[in-house]
Amino acid sequence: MSEHAVRLQEPDYAAAATTGDAVPLPTPSRLQQLQSRGRLRGTLALLGPAFVACIAYVDPGNFATNIAGGAKYGYLLLWVLLSANLMAMLIQNLSAKIGIATGRNLAELCRDHFPRPVAWGLWVQAELIAMATDLAEFVGAAIALNLLFHVPLFSAGLITAVVAFGILALQTKGYRRFEAVIAGLLGLIILGFLYDTLKIGFDAGAAAKGFIPGFAGTDSILLATAILGATVMPHVIYLHSAMLVIAAALFHDRGLLGLDSIEEAHAQFTALAGGGAALAFAVALLASGLASSSVGTYAGQVVMQGFIARTIPIVLRRLITMTPALIVLAVGLNPSRSLVISQVVLSFGIPFALVPLVLLTRRKDIMGSLVNRRLTTVVASVVAGLIVALNLFLIVDTIFG
Known about the structure:
Number of strands: 0
Helix content: over 70%
Number of helices: 18
């Protein structure tokens, strides 16, 4: 294993906020210090960065795709959630291995081992993906503010921007405060959907049948692709399935098959399950948008620094990536449809990260003893091929269908 495998540093969110550097991790000495506090306190201290990382993948795009899928197709697409998370577990395993083996992130390794035009091309598409991610986060939070306080969507988008900058500014007071806020927002999301799940209930037998693979027309494939783009981390299988099951039980089973917007879903929550369920849904959506919009900025910094060895001030990055979302709100495009399309865009971006990851993790000169086994490389290649094939089908169907 490379000596770079332990090249870890103290988390310094404040420095990253002011210099535009990527957020580092705890040093080995810091890890020993945390462990000396005892198993429980040491573990809790290490969970802070984990919550910061995971919240970016529980964004409002998940709300839009799962609600639309559950309302129109019932439990049909539950198997897509399971498959997407199994794929994500493999991808995250490869990501962790490459970091441990080299002490560098995927973007840096692409810059080191691929031709410069390839690295720059990967950076450009990654920045476009970051904008699609921000679109979902900002639009989702704006919808939540509109639902809760009747704030016009564009004004709600501006409020979201102010709050997101405020959350980022917390890091100047110490990274623990930032982590605590993010963990608290994640807790709100979980509690909101837990309350709605218990309030509404669902048909366990019908849900079990949803894990049998199948589609129901081209539109279901579009939603499946959007769900795949939104579901990129294994921890969210529980939250995502809560989202889709709630929509299936509350909307599909009552014949509301055409419900495809978050605003309609909120109105029907009120009508069918009461104001408490609607409030829990809206608060979870708001927490999702605010938290993920703050955390997602750092991924963009890591990508830019890794691919092209450049950085920009984090405030400027925040302004650039949130601009498309504010334009969507300003011109009056359908916000829920925009959320779904943004997740389809994320699905198109998966192969551009997965293919380089597979190519690099199969090389012994890079991975050393952690190099992929042949079976791992084959399975990961099949996953990448399936995602590419699904995306190509959608493109062909959109153009010629």
